[in-house]
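Input.
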Amino acid sequence: MGNRVRLSGAGIIITDPEGNSYEYALRFEFKASNNIAKYEALIAGIQLRRDLWALHIHLFNDSLLIVNQVAWDFKANQNNLGSYKSLARALLQRFTSYKLTQIPRSKNSKADALA
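Output.
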């Protein structure tokens, strides 16, 4: 049967102003830490909303570390997280307004199940 490497993934749920939800499952071609998977999902969600011509965006993430790094410009101690943080912040500047809210992991189970 050969060895199967379990690759990483993440889930995204986008809800439009009318309350319609769209679910996306991401699969990465690389092994990602939990923080990197959360950043990948955040960045993909930002890009998806921009592609739908959204002007305002409210993002929810269960990682307090990522919310603090992106929303409050906390230092990213790991080198690879710094580039994710910079990209996320740059993408968010393209919106008229944005808000990033940390939610408990228990409230994010539907997105986690997509991963």
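The longest strand covers residues 9-15.
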